[in-house]
Design a protein that fits this description.
transmembrane helix, signal-anchor, Nucleotide-diphossugar_trans, alpha/beta, 5-stranded mixed β-sheet, transmembrane, Glyco_trans_2-like, Spore Coat Polysaccharide Biosynthesis Protein SpsA, Chain A
């Protein structure tokens, strides 16, 4: 009897222990799952205990737009920018992304030059270009750029451009504060002796005026503007020069391949054209298949309503003739659309050249930039009041708060338009970008 009671107590205790352990495991798993779910939920401006402030997210291919972003922890920032597979505990990596917008460790490991894959169509490889082409001045403006990315830009131009076509590389330092971009940069520029000019602005001018300064020092037939975090591809310049040689009022852009900001892997981009909406937000637009029909196939130049703005080529005298940039625009933003409209409406043409390929780091930068937002808003208002005619109401319909904001004196730009005998914006919609007018009723 005593043995039976002992066995009952033993098995009862064992059963109770097992159920207790199972209950503990279940509760612990539930707690962890809840935590994981919370950590993967998208951050909201309405999350309790989170401080909210205004920021902009920007890239040279995109118009900056104000966003409300939650002030989050370093770990959250790293996860959102780098992804879960990156080591967010590395402070230097986090700071590099915050400062430069891409992976500085990989950039340093790549060094000052590398080979990138040839992303051109096979038909492009069969094309031949005349030996006698116009010469090019390559203008590269930079402000606090990561040293290796800047140097790879220059090295790729140096290594992949026939030197008889390369008049010069003009570097414009827009008052950078990074130490690597001073004596260290000057020392390494000896590599390009005889082909390099460096201009150091004595005050911060912003990209638009920095480019004007660079262009004023150029002596080549063609101005080629590049961003400071690019890598040109094989036979990149000849197609651009050849197109302009055939038509001096043609402005041309390469296909802009993507260099991934996390891995710096060079990736081909499809042949697209530049476009925008009634918010004046730049976007890439598909090219219809019939536009590539004919004997030239995928090598045929593509008419583009707008340019991204960071990378393009234009005859130097034509750039001056049509009024360069609006020098009263600040920093950057809107100058690409303003120049695009001016080219088309004032007798020029704008094309994408598929056989020219240039890689560009798709930076992911965040920053408090109320000054930049104000400048970009002002830039767009100058564009709207000079070039959109009665269609400016379509812009203000979507941005009513901007209708009575100041935008400076535009009389010089209005006079330029009259002097050049430019067409109306209605003509632009009818002949260049009818798809925009078709969306007139959309928000």
């Amino acid at each position: 009897m005593r043995n039976a009671v002992s066995r009952c107590l033993f098995y009862g205790s064992l059963t109770f222990g097992i159920w207790t352990a199972l209950l503990f495991i279940y509760l612990h798993h539930n707690h962890v799952s809840t935590k994981q779910k919370e950590s993967h939920e998208p951050l909201s401006a309405w999350s309790p205990g989170k401080k909210v402030h205004q920021q902009i997210i920007y890239d040279s291919e995109q118009i900056p737009i104000p966003h409300v972003i939650v002030e989050i922890t370093d770990k959250d920032k790293a996860n959102s920018v780098l992804g879960e597979d990156f080591n967010y505990t590395n402070r230097e990596l986090r700071e590099g992304f915050s400062k430069y917008g891409f992976n500085i460790f990989i950039s340093r490991s790549l060094g000052i030059e590398r080979e990138v894959p040839d992303t051109r169509s096979k038909m492009c490889l069969q094309k031949r270009y005349p030996v006698r082409l116009p010469t090019a001045s390559i203008v590269i403006c930079f402000y606090n750029e990561e040293f290796h990315a800047l140097f790879r830009t220059m090295s790729s131009v140096w290594n992949l451009t026939p030197h008889y076509l390369l008049e010069e590389i003009i570097l414009v330092d827009d008052m950078s504060e990074v130490g690597d971009l001073k004596e260290k940069l000057d020392y390494h520029l000896e590599t390009f002796r005889g082909k390099m000019k460096i201009i150091r602005n004595e005050k911060r001018e912003g990209l638009i005026r920095a480019r004007l300064i660079g262009a004023s020092h150029a002596s080549g037939d063609i101005l080629v503007f590049l961003d400071s975090h690019c890598e040109v591809n094989r036979v990149w310049l000849e197609p651009l020069l050849h197109a302009i040689a055939k038509d001096p009022k043609m402005v041309v852009c390469p296909v802009i391949d993507v260099i991934d900001y996390r891995t710096l892997k060079y990736k081909p981009f499809p042949v697209v054209r530049g476009a925008f909406d009634w918010n004046l937000q730049f976007k890439w637009d598909n090219v219809l298949s019939y536009e590539m029909d004919g004997p030239e196939g995928p090598t045929k130049p593509i008419r583009s309503p707008a340019m991204a703005g960071g990378i393009f080529a234009i005859r130097r005298h034509y750039f001056n003739e049509i009024g360069q940039y609006d020098k009263d625009m600040d920093f950057w933003g809107g100058e690409n659309l303003e120049l695009s409209l001016r080219i088309w409406m004032c007798g020029g043409q704008l094309f994408i050249i598929p056989c020219s390929r240039v890689g560009h780091i798709s930076k992911k930068q965040t920053g408090k930039a109320s000054t930049l937002i104000s400048a970009v808003t002002r830039n767009y208002l100058r564009l709207v009041h000079v070039w959109l005619d009665e269609y400016k109401e379509q812009f203000f319909l979507r941005k009513p708060g901007l209708k009575y904001m100041t935008y400076g004196n535009i009389s010089e730009r209005v006079e330029l338009r009259k002097r050049l005998g430019c067409q109306s914006f209605q003509w632009y919609l009818d002949n260049v970008f009818p798809e925009l007018e078709a969306s007139v009723g959309s928000s």
